[in-house]
Fold this protein.
Amino acid sequence: MLELHNIYLEKNKVKVLSDINLTVNEGETVVLTGPSGCGKSTLIRVALGLIKPQKGEVWFEGVNLQALSEKMLRKKRRKMGIVFQEFQLLEHFTLLENVLLALWEGEHDFSKAEKAIKSVGLWEKRFRYPRQLSGGEKQRVGIARALALDPDIIFWDEPTAALDPMYVHEILRIMDSLAQKKTMLVVTHEMPFALKVADRLVLMESGKIVEEAPPQKIFVQPSSYLGVMYRERLLDTKDALSKLAQ
Ligand SMILES: Nc1ncnc2c1ncn2[C@@H]1O[C@H](COP(=O)(O)OP(=O)(O)OP(=O)(O)O)[C@@H](O)[C@H]1O
Ligand SMILES: [Mg+2]
């Protein structure tokens, strides 16, 4: 589905990504995490073909993105959904218009917008403007916008990081149910989500992937210093979850 091969990227002579090899197979949910500034958002932008790395290749559905013209790349990108931390909604447009605008370039299909908005439970609020929505609702619009095109893969860049804790759960629940049917690459620090949903957990540090394994394996056998740190966090999460279940 998605393959990143030996990606190297620098900005202003500073190395941002190096030796990045990552595959996301169809149907998988891969969780990517690591300290602030380690290059997670940049990696997503590279995977979307929004930034060209100096070295390496990005393959999506059997096609090398670097070999595509700008027009073909845009077309391919319509099969990739993205949900951002800061929602990135257009303030002067209604909820419905925000979702319709995502469909604009191709067939302007109202029923696709309707289906996507209904799937996040916001159809009744479709004529509201972003300022009339809660943080959780705004992010649900962000999700509807990504879903409207029925993408083959969804990228999530810290989708709950800007939310009040009370809204985090509702977004994680939607992500959880989408993970059952969609291919997803999720940047998040939410360890309960990683533990429950991730097929693989990828740990990044200073522009490199330092560890990649199913979360259950990182419990038993972390193979990097960062892996040991995350093992502690995963174990704490597991404890907390089992206490809640009692
Ligand atoms: N436009 C830019 N010019 C130069 N350096 C940049 C630029 N954008 C990002 N960087 C640098 O690239 C590195 C990776 O940034 P990136 O935003 O991908 O990290 P991140 O892991 O997503 O961080 P966070 O968890 O804070 O979102 C950082 O060191 C950052 O300072
Ligand atoms: Mg980021």
Remarks:
- The radius of gyration is 18 Å.
- Residues 40-41, 157 surround magnesium ion (ligand 2) (CB under 6 Å).
- Strands lie at 2-11, 14-24, 29-33, 55-60, 63-64, 80-83, 153-157, 183-187, 200-205, 208-213.
- The mean pLDDT is 92.
